[in-house]
């Protein structure tokens, strides 16, 4: 069974961007395993596309009233026009009041509102039109209202969504279609309704693949953009962004946040005596050992050269120190001559150090790391007056 599932996963991978790795396929299914940066950038893209969608609907929705005016009676036109005005105002509010902030919950809320507005309009208009007698021309125009669910279903394709998110939105749109059918039960042509419902399901399948393909490209691009090519850990640029996110989260929730500078001792001598390739191997092995020992919430990044930064949300100075001592006790790796690799380490914590911003927190950890080097290396310092 395992080999069959693996073969199916490999087949699925062939349909997706070649840059996507096999272990990343699960990220297409649900958002739970997404990195902080991927979630932030995906949330920003979703909100921006929601606003684009809202702008188009806000402009196009009232224009159709001109067509309605030419084919429907006065009372029906007034009712439909009122629905269009309310719908247009709702789209305008969504466009003007929503701004991307990188929070996935807000992105979910935006896309839910976006699809709720036309769905409610569809149900209302379907009810109004179903109670009227139409001639050949007005019946043709009324039929155009029935295409709205198909437009909405196809519109899902512009969002980078996981399979789980797609299924939830698809279920809501299909439920709206069933409600509209129920409200016009007495006049409904069931063969036509069943055919349209099946077509909606087919479109949902295509849009799900399109959304997941967009997400796959985003996963690959974000991975390439935020990771250090040598060690595979986060790069400095992406690390600064992550630290800023953690800082604002810790400040908002009044929680702990520790940062740790790790600098390899006597690294220059490795490059001078054994060459840069040997030095690269040492850094790769150190990064591997550090990552293996970290919590899922911790972030490790290469700050530059032989220097690494560790971000530990929720950890105080004591917890950060204990974690580092545990990592050091298991070994940081070996130098090319077989001697144990050591490092000078400085720790700073938001509350304990009363840091005013993340830059000050970084500076404190950096100062303590340099003090560790000046004090003889191979030690941890979490206070300027204390070393071990």
Automatic annotation (TrEMBL):
GO terms for cellular component: plasma membrane. Keywords: Membrane, Transmembrane, Transmembrane helix. Its EC number is 2.7.7.65. SUPFAM superfamilies: Nucleotide cyclase (SSF55073). It catalyses: 2 GTP = 3',3'-c-di-GMP + 2 diphosphate. Its main location: membrane. Its cofactor is Mg(2+). The chain crosses the membrane at residues 50-71, 77-98, 110-131, 137-159, 166-185, 197-222. It comes from the Bacteria. SMART domains: GGDEF. It is found in: Cell inner membrane. InterPro entries: Diguanylate_Cyclase, GGDEF_dom, Nucleotide_cyclase, Rev_trsase/Diguanyl_cyclase. GO terms for molecular function: diguanylate cyclase activity. Residues 255-385 form the GGDEF domain. PANTHER family: DIGUANYLATE CYCLASE DGCM-RELATED, REGULATORY COMPONENTS OF SENSORY TRANSDUCTION SYSTEM. This is diguanylate cyclase. It comes from Pseudomonas mangrovi. The lineage of its organism: Bacteria, Pseudomonadati, Pseudomonadota, Gammaproteobacteria, Pseudomonadales.
């Amino acid at each position: 069974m395992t080999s069959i599932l693996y073969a199916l996963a490999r087949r699925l991978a062939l349909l997706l961007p070649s840059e996507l790795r096999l272990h990343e396929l699960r990220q297409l299914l649900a958002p739970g395993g997404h990195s902080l940066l991927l979630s932030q950038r995906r949330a920003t893209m979703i909100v921006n596309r929601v606003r684009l969608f809202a702008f188009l609907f806000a402009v196009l929705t009232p224009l159709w009233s001109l067509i309605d005016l030419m084919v429907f009676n006065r009372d029906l036109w007034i009712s439909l026009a009122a629905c269009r005005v309310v719908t247009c105002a709702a789209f305008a509010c969504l466009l003007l009041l929503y701004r991307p902030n990188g929070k996935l919950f807000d992105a979910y809320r935006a896309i839910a509102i976006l699809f709720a507005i036309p769905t409610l309009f569809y149900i209302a208009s379907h009810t109004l039109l179903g109670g009227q007698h139409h001639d050949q021309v007005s019946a043709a125009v009324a039929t155009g209202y029935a295409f709205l669910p198909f437009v909405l279903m196809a519109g899902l394709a512009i969002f980078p969504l996981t399979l789980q998110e797609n299924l939830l939105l698809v279920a809501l749109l299909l439920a709206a279609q069933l409600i509209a059918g129920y409200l016009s039960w007495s006049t409904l042509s069931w063969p036509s309704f069943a055919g349209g419902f099946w077509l909606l399901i087919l479109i949902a399948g295509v849009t799900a693949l399109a959304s997941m393909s967009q997400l796959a490209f985003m996963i690959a691009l974000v991975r390439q953009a935020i990771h250090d090519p040598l060690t595979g850990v986060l790069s400095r640029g992406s690390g600064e962004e992550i630290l800023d996110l953690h800082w604002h989260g810790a400040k908002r929730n009044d929680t702990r946040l520790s940062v740790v500078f790790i600098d390899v001792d006597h690294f220059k001598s490795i490059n001078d005596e054994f060459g840069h390739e040997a030095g690269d191997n040492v850094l790769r092995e150190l990064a591997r050992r550090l990552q293996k020992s970290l919590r899922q919430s911790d972030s490790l990044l290469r700050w530059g050269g032989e220097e690494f930064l560790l971000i530990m949300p929720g950890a105080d100075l004591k917890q950060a120190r204990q974690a580092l001592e545990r990592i050091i006790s298991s070994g940081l790796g070996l130098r090319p001559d077989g001697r144990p690799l050591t490092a000078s380490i400085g720790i700073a914590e938001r509350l304990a150090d009363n840091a005013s911003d993340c830059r000050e927190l970084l500076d404190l950890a950096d100062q303590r790391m340099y003090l560790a080097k000046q004090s003889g290396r191979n030690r941890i310092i979490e206070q300027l007056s204390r070393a071990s």
